[in-house]
Design goal:
The structure holds three protein chains of three kinds. Chain A is built from 25 helices and four strands. Chain A is mainly alpha-helical. The N and C termini of chain A lie far apart (73 Å). Chain B is elongated and about 60 Å long. The chains are: A mainly alpha, B mainly alpha, C alpha+beta. Chains A and C meet through helix 4, helix 10, helix 11, helix 12 and helix 13 of A and helix 1, helix 2, helix 3, strand 8 and strand 9 of C. Chain B: Keywords: Membrane, Transmembrane, Transmembrane helix.
Chain lengths: 874, 126, 355
């Protein structure tokens, strides 16, 4: 059937088994004349182009629909899944409120209450607040950039499946009454020692979330490259939609915030599974290290949640103020400034841990300072509203509600940033109130505003104004009635995370009021859900650009075409639809770039960072199930490890690696049938780029920055132990010696040299020498990995006895695992070369692997310096 | 007005230079104080040397930020001092980056001062 | 646009800004005011931070009210402005006005306020942690109760545990009024946190670390203390009482607590030993020397049992011993429901005699 037809469509050099060509039946005829040489004003030409574009960008049909990878499909799955998790966590939140409605209640048992509140927080933070940013960005970013897709669609799909599997695993646990039950920040030693937390709860939390962190980092890579390299031609940095600035900042923050948590997770799980004493003070560990690592992640995370939601406001406000934003640079200041400062706040979650006042002072200072860019942000919106001619609407209603609520959260935030006040408010309902004001005002209300605003481009029809207003007032009043009294409960001495409280402390009334408010709030949100789910097939389609906005996502037509944009426009304004004459018509008639998919391949344009000069036509891969398999096997690794089924874990690990390799082998660095392609308007762009210009190289670079951050977090752990111990290594324990670590470093340097040589030799055309270098480099890498492990092994360091050997081992294992991955990459390049997928001209694979090896060498150097030389210094 | 040849080209790295200096300053202050106070004994011993170091380092960082600020202001003026910068040409992009750098330098300057304040008011490890 | 510009007239300017709809404002305003007053009138209590029973709590209370008033003003201004810009006067203003607003409202004003607050906070911090001039008391947070030892000697530090010795008690801390007492905080199991809201802020009790909290009660009375770091199932019912008395009474109390038990024989004591209670509990002056659970030498003198959750009466004691898990879910002490009622009653009667 379809295969035969596709076979029949093979013409000359056009290869339809390319991953960029979807495996669909009935391909339209290909076009051999370049886009610059056809008569674009001829309707027949345009019709043929449109037919090809639709065929190429269409989502798969039937059960194969789930193999889709295009940003529209994946984004919609992602968003709806995040909302479903949110509704689930909302029900958990209501259970908490029922339990606390009256004193001495017995609606839930203490243990089940603890599961419920832990899962409420965990799901809201990890399965809703962060993923919803990624989800909405996957939908909106390419639309706002007039791109046909993000640069790595299969990575997005992989991220989604990871998210889904991890989320279902974590949420499902409560139905077996084995959910985590120690709060969403899981402080050890309560959580790391079986005697305090028997069962699988803590493991499920940890492994489930590690898996979701993978998804977040995947999204960060995708979004950074997307916003820097996939902008439409002409969209210079000063033209980027503000949303893109926020996405860039937030994705960058993810890259530095999540890895410390990954490092923390590794230490945590090693203690829980293998009794390595990272957080056990009896054996030199310190529970405070987890708190540091968790909050180095945890505080930026608040802004990772908040900034993208504010970004939605930055798009909505100008539309309804009928003018460009006032203070574009101020918003950039606010986004970048907040992004940085948010990394200097983490200890304000630890004000009560007894750290020296001077240390607390630094964090108190930064916590106050971060209010400045946040204030600027709010005042930019106010200024825009003031300067513009405001039109009110349901999205604006939610925007106003968001401001009213968020400002309260911000003001209480300034209060708790003062350590002396925080010593009273910390871990009480005051903080519970504060954080809900920040998150609901700073995240949920903007997202609902965004739903009402962008729904026309998502579904072609509008949501109901009447229901929107009802929902808003129920949510707004319900929220304030529900959460405002919590500040008072807190000031009256109600700690958070208590499953019950006694009567007579003045807590009865505020708690009852909170519960009533929470239910009104939830009912309001259900109105939104009902509005979304209500069938509206009989309603007329919304008109295009429903709100008369000025940015590119509004090019989208009410009846979805799948192609994103008919042609990729040239941008000369921040609000092209408002400012560029005849803009929509030119786009629709294909007068800009890439008006066609001549060879039936999914293509988009890559541009330069500063001025968005067109650089390349990027062919992006189409539907595949391989990403689902990869995510499934990787999920199996985490799930099997949770239950300590080690053989199955290893089997799943092998399968996951196989699936990822297959995906990468088939889907990346495909050699095109010609070097350049005519994209229209007389412009020809290369189809294959490697090295620092290529998006794949950027992805590797960004991933390795995240990886390096995780590694440095582990090193931070090592030096943290150095500072708290008078002697480290402790008396009586030998370090890993000098010989093996230095030998390892030498061999690492050799492997790095070989990887580097392989790249240069290949480029110079010495393919055979390059292959030899790859093979030798791979072997050297394996050897280096073995050597680095031999150090602690030969000196008999036992990681169970004390935290010192445990940290040495963890660093050595980290380096060894990276060596193994480096070896695998070199062997992969060797195979690519042997099979003709890697040539002197088309050398993206070895370019990226050489980049990996630069980071690898750095890792090896720091590891060896730390484990071999610090014992000498002490 | 400067000719464009006398201008340095801004990019995303120059944009984030001031807050990066803040981050660096913050980490160093935190680490120095943390290491000095880590044993958590003798909470009432004065930590004069640590505080002097923080003061000196703060001045260095403020100076660096001030230089970035000055450079950006000079070049931004050279490009016509625009604050909106939404025109479609490389100069507007350059001016936008310069103006944004000015703002970020201002914020970073304040943030560095804020970060140094604890060392002015807290004299020991208590 | 589906709605066009909305109501430019109407009472928007005078409405309370938290609620946008002008029509609803009077009702809501009345409701919020009534609610606020009701809440404020109930602000003081044995567990409230607004009781002012300690010098720190009193200073933080002042800080709180000042910040609250400031916050309300800022909020009213901000939201008032947004209502003005969207509803009252949605027409255009000049761009210059906008930029000025950002500069003054978004930058200048916050910088001034935040600097003032920060400096004030930084000055307060070392003050709160000034040296003690009263007794040093060790308090250990244990799942799910507080071990107390009067008159210990020790310093804060890392990789160490609380100093041993002192006069041991549990779940009740007596403090001399008007004196700065040093509380050394630690834990043998998981992270807990020590908080007496009416007297001072909280500080964590972290395994492997000894923290030092200095507090100065200024009003005699009995106050509630609670654990504020989640520590397991019974976290919500892990509390204690703080009894603030004159320095003389404090000395007398500690002297009395240092005495051995008042009654060291009888059926209650025998039942206590026969049922193995001494494996966990110590009663000084007898051979009962368990150290897992609270020291019971002077249980009869305490105000509460089961870590601050029940009044100390013989009935409650019987109820707790026979059904610990029912009274306090997650508690570590097993229930002794299988022990004959009369034996439990005898044990309770004996313990109540230990004044």
């Amino acid at each position: 059937m379809s295969n035969a037809q596709i076979e029949a469509a093979r013409v000359g050099t056009f290869d339809l088994s390319d991953p960029a060509t979807p495996n669909y039946p009935d391909p339209p005829p290909i076009q051999t004349i370049g886009a610059s040489h056809v008569d674009q004003e001829d309707p027949a030409v345009r019709e043929a182009q449109a037919k090809r574009l639709i065929w190429v960008w269409e989502a798969p049909k039937g059960w194969k629909y789930w193999s889709a990878v295009n940003n529209t499909e994946v984004g919609v799955w992602y968003t709806s899944t995040a909302f479903i998790f949110m509704l689930f966590a909302g029900v958990l939140g209501l259970m908490v409120r029922v339990q606390l409605a009256v004193p001495d209640n017995d609606f839930l048992t203490a243990n089940f209450y603890n599961q419920v509140y832990t899962l409420h927080g965990t799901v809201m933070m990890f399965l809703f607040a962060v993923p919803i940013f990624e989800a909405m960005a996957i939908i909106l970013l390419p639309e706002m950039l007039g791109a046909r897709d993000l640069p790595f669609p299969r990575l997005s799909a992989f991220g989604y499946w990871c998210f889904l599997i991890g989320g279902v695993f974590v949420c499902g646990s409560i139905f077996f009454s084995s959910a985590p039950a120690s709060g969403w920040f899981m402080y050890p030693p309560l959580t790391t020692q079986e005697r305090f937390t028997p069962g699988y709860g803590a493991d499920i939390w940890l492994l489930g979330l590690s898996f979701i962190e993978v998804a977040s980092i995947a999204a960060a890579v995708e979004l950074i490259v997307g916003s820097l390299k996939c902008r439409p031609p002409g969209m210079r940095l000063n033209m980027m939609p503000l949303y893109t600035w926020y996405v860039l900042v937030v994705a960058g923050m993810i890259l530095f915030a999540f890895p410390p948590l990954i490092a923390g997770d590794i230490l945590f799980e090693m203690e829980r599974l293998f009794n390595w004493p990272f957080f056990d003070p009896e054996r030199g560990g310190d529970p405070m290290l987890w708190q540091h690592l968790f909050w180095i992640f945890g505080h930026p995370e608040v802004y990772i949640v908040f900034l993208p939601a504010i970004a939605l406001l930055a798009m909505i406000v100008p539309t309804f103020a009928r003018r460009p934003i006032v203070g574009y640079s101020w918003i950039v200041l606010a986004a970048v400034g907040t992004g940085f400062l948010s990394f200097g706040l983490w200890v304000h979650h630890m004000f009560a841990t007894g750290l020296p006042a001077i240390s607390l002072g630094f964090f108190s200072a930064a916590s106050e300072a971060v209010a400045i860019p946040t204030g600027v942000q709010i005042f930019v919106f106010l200024a825009t509203l003031l300067v513009g001619r405001v039109i009110f609407s349901v999205p604006m209603l939610f925007v106003s509600g968001a401001l009213a609520i968020f400002v309260i959260g911000g003001l209480t935030g300034v209060m708790v940033a003062l350590a002396p006040f925080d010593w009273q408010a910390h871990d009480t309902y005051f903080v519970v109130g504060h954080l809900h004001y920040v998150l609901i005002g700073g995240m949920l209300f903007p997202i609902v505003a965004g739903l009402y605003y962008w729904w026309p481009i998502l579904a072609g029809r509008t949501l109901s104004d009447r229901l929107g207003k009802i929902a808003f007032w129920m949510m707004f009043v319900g929220f304030n009635v529900g959460f405002f009294p919590m500040h008072f409960s807190g000031m009256m001495g109600m700690p958070r995370r208590v499953w019950t409280y006694p009567a007579g402390l003045g807590l009865d009334l505020p708690n009852l009021v909170s519960t009533i408010g929470a239910f009104v709030f939830a009912a309001g949100f259900l109105v939104v859900v009902a509005d979304i789910l209500r069938p509206r097939g009989h309603l007329p389609l919304a008109k295009r650009n429903h709100w008369n906005a000025g940015t590119l996502e509004w090019l989208s037509e009410p009846e979805d075409k799948g192609w994103g944009v008919r042609s990729i426009p040239i941008i000369t304004s921040r609000y092209p639809i408002w400012d560029q004459p005849n803009f929509i018509d030119d786009v629709d008639n294909g007068r800009f770039y890439l008006p066609d998919a001549e060879e039936l391949k999914r293509e988009t344009i890559v541009t330069s960072v500063l001025d968005a000069k067109p650089l390349q036509v990027l062919r992006v891969p189409g539907p595949t199930f391989m990403t689902m398999w990869a995510a499934g096997f990787l999920g199996a690794v985490f799930i099997f490890a949770t239950f300590h089924w080690w053989y199955l874990t290893i089997a799943a690990m092998v399968l996951a690696t196989g699936a990822i390799l297959t995906w990468v082998w088939r889907g990346t660095a495909v050699i095109p049938e010609k070097h350049e392609k005519d994209v229209g308007r007389g412009l020809s762009l290369p189809l294959y780029v490697s090295g620092p210009q290529a998006v794949g190289w950027w992805a590797m670079f960004i991933t390795m920055v995240g990886d390096g951050t995780a590694f440095l977090s582990l090193v931070f752990g090592y030096f943290f132990y150095v500072t708290i111990h008078a002697e480290f290594p402790p008396p009586g324990i030998e370090g890993p010696g000098l010989f093996w670590p230095l030998a390892a470093l030498a061999v690492f340097a050799l492997a790095w040299g070989l990887a580097f040589a392989a790249r240069s030799l290949n480029k110079a055309g010495s393919v055979t020498s390059a292959r030899l270098a790859m093979a030798a480099g791979g072997l050297a890498a394996l050897l280096a990995g073995a050597f680095v492990l031999l150090g602690p092994h030969t000196t008999g360091l036992d990681p169970v006895t004390h935290v010192y050997p445990a940290t040495v081992w963890i660093l050595a294992i980290w380096a060894a695992v990276h060596a193994a991955v480096g070896a695998l990459m070199l062997f992969y390049c060797l195979a690519r070369s042997l099979f003709g997928h890697l040539t002197p001209l088309y050398d993206a694979d070895i370019q990226n692997v050489a980049l990996y090896w630069h980071f690898m060498l750095g890792t090896a150097f720091v590891t060896v310096a730390t484990i071999a030389f610090t014992p000498l210094a002490t | 007005m400067f000719g464009s040849s006398r201008q340095t080209a801004d990019n995303l790295w120059t944009l984030i230079a001031p807050p990066t200096i803040w981050a660096f300053h913050f980490v160093i202050c935190y680490v120095v104080a943390a290491v000095r106070c880590a044993p958590n004994t003798g909470p009432f011993e004065a930590i004069l040397a640590t505080r002097w170091f923080i003061l000196a380092f703060t001045l260095v960082c403020l100076l660096a930020i001030a230089l970035i600020f000055r450079r950006s202001v000079v070049e931004w003026r050279g490009h016509g001092s625009g604050t909106v910068n939404d025109e479609d040409n490389p100069t507007a992009r350059e001016r936008f980056l310069e103006f944004s750098t000015i703002l970020l330098a201002g914020l970073s300057f304040l943030a560095v001062v804020f970060t140094a304040l604890p060392a002015a008011f807290i004299t020991d490890c208590r | 646009m589906p709605q066009g510009r909305l109501r430019r007239n109407g009472p928007a300017a005078g409405s309370p800004p938290r609620h946008h709809a002008p029509r609803r404002s009077p009702v809501l305003r009345a409701f919020s005011l009534a609610g606020l007053l009701a809440l404020l009138s109930a602000c003081t209590g044995p567990q409230s931070t607004l009781t002012g029973a300690g010098s720190e709590a009193a200073q933080v209370e002042t800080l709180f009210w000042v910040m609250l008033v400031g916050a309300v003003l800022i909020w009213v201004f901000t939201i008032g402005l947004s209502i003005y810009a969207t509803r009252v006067h949605p027409e255009r203003h000049s761009e210059k006005t906008g930029t000025r607003l950002i500069l003054w409202g978004g930058v200048a004003f916050p910088v001034v306020v935040l600097t003032a607050l920060l400096v004030y906070g930084l000055k307060l911090m070392p003050e709160f942690r000034a040296e003690a001039n009263g007794p040093t008391i060790a308090v250990s947070g244990e799942r799910f109760w507080f071990r107390v030892a009067y008159g210990v000697e020790g310093e804060p530090g890392v990789v160490k545990s609380l100093p041993p010795g002192g006069v041991e008690s549990a779940n009740e801390i007596w403090l001399p009024v008007g004196v700065r007492s040093a509380i050394l905080l630690g834990s043998p199991d998981v992270v807990h946190s020590f908080w007496v809201p009416s007297i001072a802020g909280k500080m964590d009790m972290i395994p492997g670390r000894v923290n030092r909290l200095v507090i100065e009660p200024v009003k005699e009375g009995v106050y509630n203390g609670v654990c504020t770091e989640f520590c397991g199932d019974a976290h919500g019912q892990m509390g204690f009482r703080v009894v603030v008395v004159s320095p003389g009474d404090y000395e007398a109390y500690v002297a009395a607590q240092s005495q051995p038990a008042a009654v060291t024989s009888g059926p209650g004591f025998e039942a206590f030993m026969e049922n193995g209670c001494d494996a966990c509990h110590a009663v000084r002056g007898t051979e009962a020397d368990g150290s897992v659970g609270p020291d019971l030498t002077h249980l009869g003198s305490r105000l509460t049992i089961a870590a601050g959750i029940l009044d100390n009466t013989p009935e409650n004691l019987v109820r707790f011993i026979s059904a610990t898990e029912h009274v306090k879910q997650g508690v570590e002490m097993p229930a002794y429901g299988m022990v004959p009622n009369e034996e439990i009653a005898a044990i309770a009667a004996w313990l109540e005699q230990l004044k």
